[in-house]
Records
---
Amino acid sequence: MGQTPGRDTLVSIENVERVFVTNTGDEVRALAPVSLAIHKGEFLSLIGPSGCGKSTLLRILAGLDTPTAGRLDWAGGAPKSGNDIGFVFQDAVLLPWASVIDNVRLPLDVFGTPKGEATQRAEAILRLVGLGDFTSALPKELSGGMRQRAAIARALVYNPRIVLMDEPFGALDLLTRDRMNDELLRIQQELGATIVFVTHSIDEAAYLSDRVAVMSARPGRISAVHEIDLDQPRGEAVKDSPRFHEWLSQLRRELR
Amino acid sequence: MNATGLRITLGLVSVVGLVALWWLYVALTGVPPYVLPRPEVVGAEIVRLFASGSIWPHLAHTLGVLLAGFAIGSVAGALLGCVLAKAPRVERVVGPYLFFFQTAPKIALAPLFILWFGLGLASQLVLVVSLVFFPVMVGALLGMHSVPARLRDLAGILKMTPIQRLRLVELPSAVPELFAGLKVAAVQATIGAILSEWMSGDSGLGYLMVFASTTYRTPLLFAMVLLTALLGIVLYQSLALIERRLLSWR
């Protein structure tokens, strides 16, 4: 997926600003006016120190929070129904009383998809994320990585226009995290999904992304956007390439 | 011996031991039977009550008041708990009154209920309902508030309707707190049913207790105490069983 400038924009964030009022009446600017275009089919990472507003920006994209000023301009109109946006949290946030397949088909049940079709689609996506043999397991019976796979399957099962991920692998150990990164790239390529990925890991951002937006704190703003010109598809070899390490040091410098 | 077998054996040992202590105490101290009858006399009284069939109308009456009051009180309490959880403004307006009635000792209100609703079934039901209502309401309210913030976000992202939120997320999350309330309510309901029969009416286990104590029929009194305790335990354990079924995912 080589990036070409000017490709189709899915949503453009225009001068979005978010001011929180604290209990004591003070105003805290979580986001200074931020502008950014998100392209169809791209993998875009937001990195930055804690408190830089990356999660706030993601919640605004998800419609969970509203900007104090500015607007989102969606190609083809603002999301109206629940199946426009997929969201993956840092924790899996599965219903603990429901089996893996019931968790994954939850969105389809909410949208009123016919039962048989919902089951088929949930089974297919579970096979894609490698949970084909665990459809009837309860969340507590799965490892952290497997739970997160189920959460990703739940966000992808209805083919949302955009998948928003808020540090989805932040709670996993490094080995699992590496494996999940490769799985995520494979799944994204298979489905052609647009992904906005919040992380504080520079390695993860550089390895996964077509573009990386670097954010800085107080007030949160985007200080740079980079096209990551590494070989596609990404793989272990990329991690050994000098270009990858150049990106790591540049991003690390910009985060200081 | 497996775990279940051991549990049953230990339970039997404990019951037999208690009856033996009781019997020994009566035999050694020579306490008069109208103060503490021997266990076999109480046992014979229970057998007589069931064999002659004279217990059934009383048992049915108490059970009826208990179950009807419990059902009405829990449904009403659960409904109001859900409404309050969904409408924080309503909670702020009616909350203080609810708090007052919740802490007011309902037992002390019992004479008032008799004044208002008469000596019959109505005031008995009102007392049981008033005892059941608050613990269930508080349980439902706490349960609905216990939904994790991220699950609420998920419901928001999927744009669930209020009914879908309730059915798919909030009610299942509320089960533990709701059942904690229901179990407290079950104990309260048993107390309420017996107490209401002490004060008014002419049937029920509570009525038989008053009758037995005023006529010095102590074996009958003991039989009633055992039966009401058993009633409370059965109700509580049935709830615990349903709870275990519903929370088997834990």
---
Amino acid sequence: MTQDSRMRLLRDMVRIRRVEETLADLYPSQEMRTPTHFSIGQEAVAVGVCAALRRTDAVYSGHRCHAHYLAKGGDLRAMVAELYGRETGCARGRGGSVHLNDPEAGVIASSAILGQTMAVAVGTALAFRMDGRDDVAVTFFGDGTVEEGIFHETLNFAVMRHAAVVFVCENNGFSTHTRLEVRQPAGVPIHSRGGSYGMPSRLVDGNDVFAVHAAAQEAVAHCRRGDGPFFLECTTYRWREHVGPLWDYDKGYRTKAEVDSWIAQCPIRRASEILVAEGVCTVEQVMALERESQVEVNDAVAAARAAPFPAVEDLTLGTY
Amino acid sequence: MRRLTYGQAISEATVQCMEADPSIFVAGIGVDDFKGIFGTTSEAFRRFGPTRVFDIPNGENAMTGIAIGAAAVGKRPLVVHPRNDFMFLCMDQLFNLAAKWRYMFGNRGGVPVVFRGIVGRGWGQGATHSQSLQSLFAHFPGLHVGLPASPADAKGLLVSALRGSAPVVLLENRALYDLDGEVPEACEAIPFGKGRVVRAGTDVTIVGISLMAYEAARAADILTTHGVSAEVVDLRSVRPLDEDIVLCSLRKTGRLVVADTSWALCGVSAEVAAIAAEKGWHFLKAPVRRVTPPDCPAPVSKPLEDAFHPNPMTIAQACLDVLKAGAPLGAGVVDVQATFAGPY
């Protein structure tokens, strides 16, 4: 990787973190009224994978979709306006936090039903192949989706049709508040599920953006060559509550010590420490990235708050 | 005009649309096999081959999502289910994504996926292979739901579906498959939301859908011998639903019988009755009557099955009751599937 490329990974993570922490701080003001699943702590997966993609590749996501949307190049102002319920939102105030899309950037859809967009991504890959395009589709999902029937239906179909899809499982260890070990059998790691259907599958440290990126480049190249789907399990951790802007280590399903141990593994800190140690950048430059992102998100918030709400007479627009 | 069977009309619409639009592909369990979904996909497979007409693994929900994902980037998938009962396994993708896509992504894009589901009837196909799911599909904004009752409509509604921008569910009743009728050779669309007056009459309106529009026409023949002039209206689609054609007919006759292939509670017959109650109350000379299957799953045993499905006699009897015009009719009409020897 070039130094610029590595800096881009750091910059994109810092930007997403600044956006989400700013929005989380603003959430209690009740101006954003849409259930939001923050990606804080999980940025390396989104950034590492999307940096291996080109604009015409397709990305699909689930309910925790802000980081994927932004990492793929989704319009920040349109996302913030969507959370504020404005006509200028990416879904014009009809979709909310869990239904972000920006087709021009290749963010085709995200959805709040587990596993839904896994299958949809395969359909997009199928269409790319029909059109002779070597673009790939990526679908991000969590460890909870592995328990859904559609997970298995989709992997089976993708292998049978050699679909150019990268399945990216963000394993953060929880489905809402339920731990992985009470939901899935011990000794059957998630990445082995991909392998069991006959596709290459990797287990990746999802808080190491460089490792994620390297794995994603291998996966994307495999798909572009027409060699079929590829599976990545990226282990990571969600810092904030399942849905909402708050911390919840006092709610009994996890401990502060556990949260702190993952904060110590912060993907941004890890990446910046490496880059500073190698002389790629300075601490001051990292802080400058934070300041630039803060200006950008403040600007997006101001624009959203100044934008009009959708007109009530347009309530049923878009239903055929 | 030349005549085709209902199944031939579906095949012709598929082939003509695929010739005109290379983005259309056909996917479904068995679409390329020797039966070709009762012959409706065989000619398309012969002409366009396995890249555009292909078999799929089981996994109905994923396949629905795959069709949606292809449609999201410009394809027009036509997904075929040999029984609509399998579509219960598609509900998440169909209702939570396809139907909502355009709206919840800000009235942009949309996924023009078309689903054909065949409704079984008779020969003991029973509870999970002979129910008709129109009221379920029709409940959700963002879909078009059509139920062609004639070969011409089977062609025209499919053409409309494959040219339009909405996700579509077409339900085809198996009992109609071998019936023939005049079908235009040209590839002409019949719009969703426009009903059809099957025959004009003055004493009572019978609103039917799918097989019940056909059976209503046979009921009207019986009623003629009793001196009753029945107007038969085929809704053709339930979403959108042609309210005007119901109200125009009701204004003329003042009496309404609604016949449906599915249950009364929360069904299409309830919806039509609600139109009469909300917007046609002042036309009504008698209470609305509904003719539907009784409140039980479809049975298997022949006498039970015969009693389960509405037929021309039960529809005609309901009309006579509404008109307070005469004695019970009893049995005495040939079943629409009298020559059907099974199995499927």
